[in-house]
């Protein structure tokens, strides 16, 4: 059985010898590693580092938009709607030819930094567009409000 585990490569010194070790990213990954036999063979795939601050910014943006609209009652529902409207979707065709679209994941394991940057730009563009959740909102004003909420420096 194959399970995906996420970890960060680090170094540890054991008895004067520097060794490379993989540190789990969260409790779920730690649990999966703890359940493995010591001689388990692992495969690795290098992924580009994603910005935690930018992820916080995205969810700050979603929560700010959520507070200023009355169509959605959950941040996850609003996020999925914005993913659909901004084209961040996976699609498949039913046997009758109908095409079904559903929101792509933006999780750290499923979206690299470059892909997340492109998605975030499209999402903001859609939010402030005439048909968006917050039409007419100035992009810089919106972003500065989000930055203020999450506690990072504003830009001019």
Describe this protein's structure.
The protein is an alpha+beta fold and 156 residues long. It has two domains: 1-46, no CATH class; 52-150, no CATH class. Helix content is 40%, strand content 17%. It contains five helices and four strands. The strands form two sheets. The chain has a two-stranded antiparallel sheet. The protein has a two-stranded antiparallel sheet with strand order 3-4. It is globular and about 60 Å long. The protein starts with 6 loop residues before the first strand and ends in a 6-residue tail after the last helix. The mean pLDDT is 88.
Give the gist of this structure.
The protein has five helices and four strands, in the order E-E-H-H-H-E-E-H-H. With 156 residues, it is an alpha+beta fold.
Low-confidence stretches at least 5 residues in length (pLDDT < 50)?
A: none
Radius of gyration: 20 Å
Number of helices: 5
Number of structural domains: 2
- Give the helix proportion (percent range): 40-55%
Order of helices and strands: EEHHHEEHH
Shape: globular
Strand order in the largest sheet: 1-2
Q: Tags for this entry?
A:
156 residues; alpha+beta; 5 helices
List the helices and strands and how they pair.
Blueprint lengths: L6 E8 L2 E8 L2 H8 L17 H16 L7 H11 L3 E5 L5 E5 L9 H16 L10 H12 L6
Antiparallel strand pairs: 1-2, 3-4
Helix pairs in contact: 2-5
């Amino acid at each position: 059985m194959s399970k995906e585990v996420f970890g960060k490569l680090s170094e540890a010194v054991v008895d004067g010898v520097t060794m490379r070790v993989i540190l789990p990213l969260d409790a779920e990954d730690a649990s999966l590693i703890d359940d493995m036999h010591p001689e388990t063979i692992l495969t690795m795939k290098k992924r580009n580092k994603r910005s935690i601050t930018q992820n916080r910014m995205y969810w700050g943006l979603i929560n700010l938009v959520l507070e200023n609209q009355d169509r959605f009652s959950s941040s996850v529902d609003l996020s999925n709607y914005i993913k659909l409207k901004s084209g961040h979707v996976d699609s498949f065709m039913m046997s009758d030819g109908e095409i079904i679209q559903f929101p792509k994941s933006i999780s750290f394991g499923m979206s690299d930094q470059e892909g997340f940057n492109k998605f975030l730009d499209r999402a903001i563009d859609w939010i402030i567009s005439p048909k968006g959740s917050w039409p007419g909102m100035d992009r810089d004003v919106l972003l500065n409000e989000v930055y203020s909420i999450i506690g990072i420096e504003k830009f001019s």
